[in-house]
Amino acid sequence: LAKTTQPISMDSYEGQEVNITCSHNNIATNDYITWYQQFPSQGPRFIIQGYKTKVTNEVASLFIPADRKSSTLSLPRVSLSDTAVYYCLVGASTSGSARQLTFGSGTQLTVLP
Amino acid sequence: EAGVAQSPRYKIIEKRQSVAFWCNPISGHATLYWYQQILGQGPKLLIQFQNNGVVDDSQLPKDRFSAERLKGVDSTLKIQPAKLEDSAVYLCASSYRVTSYNEQFFGPGTRLTVL
Domain limits at A23? Predict the structure, then answer.
């Protein structure tokens, strides 16, 4: 299985930029890195996905170094509603089209007023 | 578009009893996933279907857990018999294809409590 490591928790203030890093030393060569957000009593929600370098969408940026052994989710100007648990998801390749998917343990982000 | 539907939302049973969870994925999504999420942990993949075939069930405790997706649409996950350590939220997700660049859409989950 792919192994991932994330910080357990982070605190930030409204309006600041937050960076959450996930290490995934044995990610499959052909696999993407995906980040999800989860609020209490809800299923995870897709935020962003990338393979290498940098990806940006309307809510976040994802930075992936050349060795792809880690990735950093960047949330610009966070608000109180960004308080949630953030997970990285990677896969380890198997035979055929299967991937052994592994979620990280999650980072609890708390945004303070 | 309708999201992933799951039922029931909550279930309380005693150990050694049986329980079943139902999931209806987003229309047109070929891939369906069942995850177990224990309190304070990330979701753990139990089984992944592509249409009605199993893609990965390497982490499914097959002595007590079973899952099926007979017509390639909705799916049922069963636990028989349940143990105390099965208390968790069971999440169902679907994606258009199994390839890695497809985002997964999650349902609200079923919270199981085993007493």
Answer: 9-112
Q: In total, how many domains does chain A have?
A: 1
Which of A101, A102, A103 to probe the B interface (max B CBs under 10 A)?
A101
| A51 chain-B contacts, CB cut-off 8 A | 101
SS (H, E, C) chain A: CCCCECCCEEEEECCCCEEEEEECCCCCCCCCEEEEEECCCCCCEEEEEECCEEEECCCCEEEECCCCCEEEEEECCCCHHHCEEEEEEEEEECCCCCEEEEECCCEEEEEEC
Q: What is the CATH number of the domain that holds B48?
A: 2.60.40.10
Cβ pair B113, B91 in contact under 8 A: no
pLDDT of res. A29: 81
pLDDT digits (tens, 9 = 90+) for A56-109: 999 999 999 999 999 999 999 999 999 999 999 988 655 555 567 888 899 999
**Position A3 in a domain:** no
Q: What residues in A contact B43, CB-CB < 8 Å?
A: 44, 87, 103
Count of CB atoms within 10 A of residue B11's CB? 18
Total domain count, chain B: 1
Instruction: State the smallest CA–CA distance between residue A54 and chain B in angstroms.
Output: 15
pLDDT digits (tens, 9 = 90+) for A13-36: 999 999 999 998 888 888 889 999
